[in-house]
Amino acid sequence: MADAAIAVRPPRRPRPGRQAWAHRLFVAPSVLTLLVLGVYPLLFIVAAAFTDSSLGNPFREWVGTATFETVLADGDAIAALWRTVAYAVAVSAASLVLGVVTAVALAGAVRSGAIVRTLLLLPLITPPVIVGTLWKLVYNPGGGLLAVVLGLFGVPAASVAPLSSTTWALPAIAVADVWEWTPLVAILVFAALVSQDPEPIEAARLDGAHGVRLFRHITLPSIAGVVASAFFIRLVLAFKVFDLIFTMTSGGPGQATTTASYLIYQAALREFDVGKASVITLLLAVVVTVATVPVAIAARRLQRNHEH
After folding, report:
1. Contact at 8 Å (CB) between 80 and 255?
2. Structural domains of the chain in order of their starting residue, each with its CATH number
3. Are 276 and 260 in contact, with CB atoms under 8 Å apart?
4. CB atoms within 10 A of CB 255
5. In the predicted model, what is the mean pLDDT of the chain?
6. CA 278 – CA 95 distance, rounded (Å)
7. Model pLDDT for residues 132-157, shown as the tens digit of each residue
8. Where is pLDDT greater, at 213 or 274?
9. Where is the ABC transmembrane type-1 domain (predicted)?
10. Which is the most buried residue in 16, 53, 183, 307, by most CB within 10 A?
11. Other CB atoms within 10 A of residue 94 CB
12. What is the 3-state secondary structure (H, E, C) of the chain?
């Protein structure tokens, strides 16, 4: 009997203390990564913003809010922040519209869809520096693609130089940016289209809904959460634009294409003023938060409404 009792004895449960330590051990790499890549840089930027800091000698002297006051009184810095907001919203909206249209066209293409989807990946896998160089060649007035095409309509090649124009330089960069990132929106929306429930669409078609009416009342509400999420991702990417500006215009002509990210680069790596760069970084973080939080909230609500 004793042997039988020993045989059916339940296995020992691990002690609560061991479970806690095991949990901490598995979570530790993630916490360490967050501290190294997130918290430490943030603390460094905040400390540099309130001190007199250079690239080689940070935290030399406490200056309080003096650097903030200097940056906020700088017309070029404020203009760069507003320019960044306008640019980000414009290219994100353009990418969203073109991406949704492309996704709908891909969803309707049965045979050629796979080939087109593969071609759409090319701008995404191309490094931004290469994209900037490519479009700089397109805009080249001395034999670029744009000059050649407009020359067929009698437009002088010498007059086609958008990157040298204070009016057209930023829109020219925006075109390259939209070309590069629209495929990302298209792929995300396409994935939502092919995974939606076909029954409501078939029922709507039986009731006579087709084309734009079907997309507006049936398809779009079912993928609205994904569309809003794609816009959120595109907006964040647009706020970070730097490579295209650095490659195509270097912030010029004048300050026409100087965005906040390029202004941070100028302050930190050209003027060696880390304090000023940190202040602009914090101001940009506030602007990005104000612009993206409503979009994130809307995306979450739309997704929840679709699930329920």
Report:
1. yes
2. 75-307 (1.10.3720.10)
3. no
4. 17
5. 85
6. 30
7. 999 999 999 888 889 888 888 888 86
8. 274
9. 81-295
10. 53
11. 19
12. CHHHHHHCCCCCCCCHHHHHHHHHHHHHHHHHHHHHHHHHHHHHHHHHHCEECECCCCCCEECCCHHHHHHHCCHHHHHHHHHHHHHHHHHHHHHHHHHHHHHHHHHHCCCCHHHHHHHHHHHHHCCHHHHHHHHHHHCCCCCCHHHHHHHCCCCCHHHCCHHHCCCCHHHHHHHHHHHHHHHHHHHHHHHHHHCCCHHHHHHHHHCCCCHHHHHHHHHHHHHHHHHHHHHHHHHHHHHCCCHHHHHHCCCCCCCCCCCHHHHHHHHHHHCCEHHHHHHHHHHHHHHHHHHHHHHHHHHHHHHHHHHC
Tell me how far the alpha carbon of residue 304 is from its chain's centroid. Answer: 23
List the structure tokens of 229.
């999420």
Q: Which two tokens stand for residue 175?
A: 């075109």
Q: Which of 212, 135, 221 is nearest to 178 (CA)?
A: 135
